[in-house]
Amino acid sequence: MKAISYSRYGGPEVLEYGDVREPRLGPDQVLVKVRAAAVNPVDWKCREGYLDPMLEAAFPVVPGWDVSGVVERTGGAVPEWAPGDEVIGYVREDFLSRGTFAEYVAAPVRTLARKPPNLSFEEAAGLPLVGLTAYQALTRVLDVRRDETVLVSAAAGGVGSLAVQIARHLGARVIGTASERNHDFVRSLGGEPVTYGEGLVDRVRALVPMGVDAALDVIGGDSLKEFAQLLAPEGRITSISDPAVTEHGGQYWFVRPDPADLQRLSDLAAEGVISVHVSETFPLERAAEAHRLNQEGRTRGKIVVTVD
To answer: For the Enoyl reductase (ER) domain, which residue ranges apply (predicted)?
Structure first.
């Protein structure tokens, strides 16, 4: 089958388009014919070796954890899926090798849910990782409640844009940092945009003088420190990018596959509660360009790779 792969760590130039062996199908897996795969920052971080202490790479590595596609066949212990079913998945295993930037992926059943019928395959591919990250951070870690105020960084990005929508669905007021060019987009999601950069703390304080009830940091570093300053006395904070959040009394969160959570997100999308904005698509053979664009960190919504 055709796929994108890399045989060593490095920049986008190590990505190669060509033939790789079709994955073997285990008893608890589903072979998915890939229609689209979203690009996430973790993809290039894996490619450059930043996650090597956590995830062993079995080269050559096919990158990608997000997928939307159609079930081709199922393993012997999988009665819940059938050929022809349309699925989405956060196909993360405990090592790097068999990713979603390929014509087929063998996905463990614990990583899959039904594709929202109202989303295109491109939109659906952009939902799993960022949606699960936002949903789990807001509900499991921050326990966001109705009428609370939530602060979200990079509110126009992949995780941030879903976090704004999910927090609004939970009944919260949402303030999101974004560049001025993305303010209207954040408003369209239900958030109140504030420009990031120098003076952010004062701008947020002007909106919420007593501080925010919950804060979701997706950037880390100075952004995390500013968010910690903006908490109400009993406020909660989590970060998906900077373990130093624990120094501020918060919790670091790394998203995990969960079929029930993913199905909940699919249902919310089907109900029109949340949507996925796809900023640009690339064919599989141009995945290196998609990686480069994602690595610049200025994308509104999602970048998606399509597979014919």
So the answer is: 10-305
